[in-house]
TrEMBL record:
Similarity remark: Belongs to the AmiS/UreI family.
Keyword Translocase recorded: no
Domain of life: Bacteria
Record's protein name: Signal transduction histidine kinase
Topology of the protein relative to the lipid bilayer: Multi-pass membrane protein
Amino acid sequence: MSNVGLLYVGAVLFINGLMLIGVIPGKSAAILNFFVGGMQVVFPTIVLIQAENDPGIILGAAGLYLFGFTYLYVGIIQVTGVSGEGLGWFSLFVSACAVVIGFIQLTLQDPVFAVIWWIWAVLWFLFFLLLGLGMESLAHTTGWFTILISHLTGTIPAFVLLLGRYESNVPLALTLAALGSLALLIAITLGRRRAAATEAEESTPAQLVT
């Protein structure tokens, strides 16, 4: 994935996370999804035209399409109000592809990006549970995980790459995996607190009546 593209992955994931926890309205978030989704469909198409059948370049473009189509899909859903089940099942496909790409990164001696792709696989699997299977109780968990890993897997690596200081080794990959696991634990905790608070609010009128 290109350095600039990765930077905007961080941006749009951050915005989508805020949307999922109710901070940003869906239609407002849709604008950035269209911008970034369009960029990550147009740019890889240009790259493929110039790839000359280079497998590494083609692999990178394929990964960008997975993100680009997701963001365009999100934008369309927010603007039109259509059901999100299709995006949910597409997210399952993206999650599976991300697992495979992570293993490919290992064969390319890049364990850090292998972990990044696996963290994205977890995130897109949460999108599948939320949208594909309708598990709405996971909305805040998914939102917080999206916010936390937006910078961990997007913004920070992008700036490191842009500065020409990127390194990939096993200790860094294990550190990133630990931070990703911590982000998931925090997201689950915050999601459960929100669910408990919502349940308490809904039960209050009934308690007052009795």
